[in-house]
Amino acid sequence: MRLFLNASAIVLLVLTSCSNTIKPEELYGRWNYIKVDNSNLQDTLPDGELELQSPAIIFSNNRDLIIEWGGKNLSSGKFRMEGKIIRYTEDLPRGQKREFPFLIKSLNSKELVFQTMEESPTTVTARIKR
């Protein structure tokens, strides 16, 4: 019986520590990119490019997501949250869609750090625009 209680306590601890669910409303707003890191050195941005292009990711309360680059909408669609994963469904031409995830590495009231979930991930650090 004691073994069962210890095992149950461990399972409960693991489940509660993994349930850091991020609510969509924690993301609402415009997040301006301040840093982009790619593990593939060939995809590194030249100095000054980030400031010049002024990229951002924008989350709205109707679950719209827009990615801007160079003052233009680079991508748009809908998002939903699954724990710490943003499930983004991008709208493509001719009514097609594709879904891909972003993992939220950290989030507070001023800064969001997220990364693509690819073999060679890109990590973005962004600050909320108030």
Please describe the structure with a list of short key phrases separated by commas or semicolons.
disordered N terminus, globular, alpha+beta, Lipocalin, single chain, 130 residues
What's the arrangement of strands in the largest beta sheet?
1-2-3-4-5-6-7-8
The CATH class: Mainly Beta
What spatial form do the alpha-carbon principal axes imply? globular
Query: What is the level-2 CATH architecture name?
Result: Beta Barrel
**DSSP strand content:** over 45%
User: What is the count of structural domains?
Assistant: 1
In CATH, the topology is named: Lipocalin
Number of helices, counting only DSSP H or I runs of 4 residues or more = 2
Main beta sheet: 8 strands, antiparallel, barrel
Terminus-to-terminus distance: 55 Å
List segments where confidence is low: pLDDT < 50 over at least 5 consecutive residues: 1-17
Gyration radius from CA atoms, angstroms:
18 Å
* Overall mean pLDDT: 86
CATH superfamily: Domain of unknown function DUF4822
Number of strands: 8
Write the layout of secondary structure elements.
Layout: H1 2-17, E1 29-38, H2 49-53, E2 56-59, E3 64-69, E4 72-82, E5 85-91, E6 97-107, E7 111-116, E8 122-128
Antiparallel strand pairs: 1-2, 1-8, 2-3, 3-4, 4-5, 5-6, 6-7, 7-8
